[in-house]
Structure prediction request, 396 residues.
Amino acid sequence: MQESHGTVVLRYGHRPGRDDRMTTHVGLTARALGADRVVLPDNAGQSAETIRDITDRFGGPFAVELRDDQRAFTGGWDGTVVHLTMYGEPVQDVEGEVRAAHADGPLLVVVGGEKVPFDFYEEADFNVAVTNQPHSEVAGLAVFLDRLFEGRELEREWADADRRVVPMETGKRVVETGEADGSDGGAGGDGSDRGGGA
Amino acid sequence: MQESHGTVVLRYGHRPGRDDRMTTHVGLTARALGADRVVLPDNAGQSAETIRDITDRFGGPFAVELRDDQRAFTGGWDGTVVHLTMYGEPVQDVEGEVRAAHADGPLLVVVGGEKVPFDFYEEADFNVAVTNQPHSEVAGLAVFLDRLFEGRELEREWADADRRVVPMETGKRVVETGEADGSDGGAGGDGSDRGGGA
Prediction:
């Protein structure tokens, strides 16, 4: 979002095939819920392509980056590092402190995939848990971002979108951007829904 | 949670193999973030097993149900039906109304998998979007539940757990339940992390 400082989500580890869908959902969630950029392992090219495709169609700005030096990237981060893990401190207890740190500089949010090396727990400025229960890295990221931005991310405007979903009480409506009051995109729109958006 | 009325999450549609992990994450997210029960299609037995296993180890109460009559189940629901979809009304605009309805009776939250039939949009009391962007049904469910319960779900106590994660600033600590101050469970605990909990 156009916050004072950037918010970057890093997906730590990726097993091609098995993790494709989860990594894609991490990236799409980062985009939809207010991050400026997602950094994926360089073997997650397929997920990167999907996220870029959605950004091309539904708007940005949102950057997708593939890197082979994830550990060096987190180690060299000039700002605050949050590591989301079920072993960390409750999000409701530390979110204020994280927000205060983010007001002073950029924030890197690390979402584990394969096992995160133990010393990473010491390197992170905050180890944050969205409940201390096992559930989903996508769910944890979503709740964390919604709380970090205190809901402002839900009001974000998108630039350079080809299409836009018009919220409706019932039914599906997608308009081509530029149309003041376009026709119902219905099945012609991004019919997949992706279960997504919610 | 021990709210006045039950909260049930229904996963609509499931493709064995391809959807296993997403369906499992929907169920684990429902459990961790305050629902009382998840209803899965009857071909999602593997996901049901995983969710039950987590409940056995980390506590409940939380019920997992497999049904082959999902459409009849939603149609016969005696209470409010929320359908999460990127085409719906913004969660921030309707969450108060949904909460008010839930104060009067049970709530069914439907999470799409395969394409949800169009007439379901008309059947639902609320079509709710967590942003009108394509992202992840798991992310949408997580933000919806956190807002529905206004964060109270994060303080939930778990019954009949074999083990409990102790929140820590750094590191991993899992204690066997009953131990007043158990030893570090470390790798001996549920080391998988599942990227989970956050």
User: Anything to note?
Assistant: The beta strands of chain B are 7-12, 37-41, 63-67, 80-90, 107-112, 126-129, 163-165, 174-176. Residues 162-198 of chain B form one domain.
